[in-house]
Design a protein that fits this description.
Helix content is 61%, strand content 11%. It has helices at residues 2-30, 40-53, 62-76, 88-115, 128-137, 150-160, 174-192, and strands spanning 37-39, 77-80, 83-87, 122-124, 163-164, 167-168, 171-173. Strands 1-3-2 form a 3-stranded antiparallel beta sheet. The chain has a two-stranded antiparallel sheet with strand order 4-7. A two-stranded antiparallel ribbon has the order 5-6. Residues 1-12 have a biased composition (Basic residues).
């Protein structure tokens, strides 16, 4: 069992290393301004290259791509000599996070509207975020019955990066929630995945 886990760990590390190398290669290719950041149009070309070469992203429409670019730049962008762009260090993290969001985008937006009782286009820590996360887990048969805790709400708020006047927001909007909730779904799934049962070891019988 330990050997199998070690093998999986090595395989995962190898995949991560391959993705890092691929990101480095694409960064070098598409940072045409040589600013050290991938600006919006460079990022667009880079994402389309990944789609075509590796199928790592599923961009169902031009509108979906535009939304993805805007979110990546909003949450991972920084000002550079050529304008707002994403650094090499943030590029891979951003792509992984938003890839997960794209898979659940329609569901997340539908359930967000359902949980937004006063139609404020935001969800509050006081209860609406918990309602929203409970609706999310009920969408997945393997997650039904899970109780959403305050720590789950904290997880979402910490990853939404919402600040106003230097103070962390206690509410989230749909743009903030999407990628954070997609990540949360993956974390919860990993926690509830049942451990593999060890097969009993059959001992040979000896005759006397």
């Amino acid at each position: 069992m330990a050997a199998a886990r070690a093998k999986k760990k090595r395989e995962r590390a190898a995949r991560e290393h391959q993705l890092d190398q691929e990101t480095d290669r694409l960064f070098e290719k598409y940072d045409t301004s040589k600013s050290g950041l991938i600006e919006k149009e460079e990022l667009r070309a880079m994402l389309m290259a990944i789609e075509q070469e590796k199928g790592q992203l599923t961009l169902v429409s031009e509108a979906g791509l535009e939304k993805l670019l805007d979110r990546m730049l909003k949450n991972y962008g920084e000002e550079g000599p050529e304008g707002l762009g994403v650094s090499r260090e943030n590029a891979l993290t951003a792509m992984k996070r938003y890839r997960a969001w794209l898979k659940h985008e329609e569901m997340i937006e539908r359930l967000f509207r359902q949980a937004d009782a006063n139609d404020s286009r935001t969800l509050e820590r006081g209860g609406e975020i918990k309602v929203f996360l409970t609706l999310v887990v009920n969408e997945f048969p393997e997650l039904r019955g899970i109780t959403v805790e305050d720590s789950d709400v904290d997880f979402i708020l910490e990853r939404c990066d919402g600040f106003k006047d230097g103070v962390k927001n206690e509410v989230i909007d749909m743009e903030e929630a999407g990628p954070a909730v997609a990540t949360w779904i993956q974390v919860v799934r990993a926690k509830v995945r049942p451990p593999r049962r060890l097969k009993p070891r059959h001992r040979g019988t000896s005759s006397h």
